[in-house]
Amino acid sequence: MLKELVALCLVSAAAVMLLTGIARAEDGASLSAERAHELAQAGEVLLIDIRRPQEWRDTGIGGSASPVSMHEKGFVEKLLDLTGGDKSKPLALICAAGIRSSFMRSQLVQLGFTRVIDVSEGMLGSAAGDGWLKAGLPVKPYRN
After folding, report:
1. Residue 33: CATH number of its domain
2. DSSP 8-class letter at 86
3. Is the whole-model pTM more than 0.70?
4. Contact call for residues 83 and 66 (beta carbons, < 8 A)
């Protein structure tokens, strides 16, 4: 009986993490662009567009995203500023097609960030989905 109760608790906890879209970094969490936008709008995750400034100029930035290029010096420090130094704050990373966000997710986990989520379809789409732009999600112009 105790084993069944423990198993039920574990399954319930996993379901809650999957349904909310927020899981610990070691769980390999990923989100659709739509879900990332919803969670960012609700203040449940900090959405970070890690592409290059030229890419932001070309397509705009997701309306609920903060532009912090992984290619620029001080990337991690800028993330720490945005999180108030809290490495457990949920971060959702988005790039063009999910490759850089997946790579950077693993790098941030190695640096001690515990809730890093990959928006694997990216802005332009990938095998994971159509992407932010095709989904018709809000975009804001990049102003530097």
Report:
1. 3.40.250.10
2. -
3. yes
4. no
Domain span at residue 39 reads 23-140
Number of domains within the chain? 1
Tokens representing residue 22 in the block:
């927020």
Residue 115 C-alpha from the chain's centroid: 9
Residue 78, both tokens: 């800028």
Which of 36, 3, 19 has the alpha carbon at shortest distance from 118? Answer: 36
User: Within 10 Å of residue 142's Cβ, how many Cβ atoms?
Assistant: 17
d(CA 95, CA 48): 9
Q: 42 is written with which tokens?
A: 């609700």
pLDDT digits (tens, 9 = 90+) for 93-144: 999 999 999 999 999 999 999 999 999 999 999 999 899 999 999 999 998 7
Q: Which of 32, 6, 15, 4 is nearest to 119 (CA)?
A: 32
Rounded Cα gap, residues 81 and 75, in angstroms: 10
SS3 45: coil
